[in-house]
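Convert to structure. Protein one:
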Amino acid sequence: MHGRMRKVKSLKNYKSSLILLVAITIGGVLGMVMGEKASIFAPFGLGAYFASVVGQLGSQILTGYIKVFILYLVVSIVYYFVFFTLYAYIGGKNDGQRKIW
């Protein structure tokens, strides 16, 4: 009885790894059999993978995306004002800067 419990516990610990291994194997076989037609199923696999990652990591992923998005906004706003001012100056000196701003 104790050996069976250990086996069941180890299967529970490696459940997601086993599922991933089976999915990769099935995907490889389908890719070899179907060839180019297998690329039709790629969006489904990508969507399922993304849903799985979000389900497991949840808020950790969301906070990472929010930080990157805020950084992107700040950098793009600074880029807009600095470089478009520089472009206007190169194009028309002070007159170009007055026209753009």
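Protein two, convert as well:
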Amino acid sequence: MNYYKEFIKKSYQIRKDLSNKIKLQYNKIPVIIDKYRETDPDISRHKFLLDSNLSCHQFMYLVRKFIDINSYQALFIFHNGISLQMNKSFHEYETNSDGFIYLFYSIENTFG
């Protein structure tokens, strides 16, 4: 099941209201993450609420905990088709018009 496609099927207004509620109640950035290819391993958690000052490197460390990958496999996370810059914070990334940040991840073998 592709979580992103299922989430996008909800009406725009429902998604917009949900993101506004999250931002007002928790003061966090709502993030949806899903796999880029069907061959990538599944993630056990698709929704995250992130502090705006959380760096992409810290988020990548967090995501690795929810994906069953080996130490020799590299994790790549994309926003709008471009790989995340590790030194950036999430408040520097543009949210979608509904208020969410949509990310995709992919796994590649780095050794052998």
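Residues 30 and 49 are 5 Å apart (CA to CA). Helices lie at 3-8, 12-26, 56-66.
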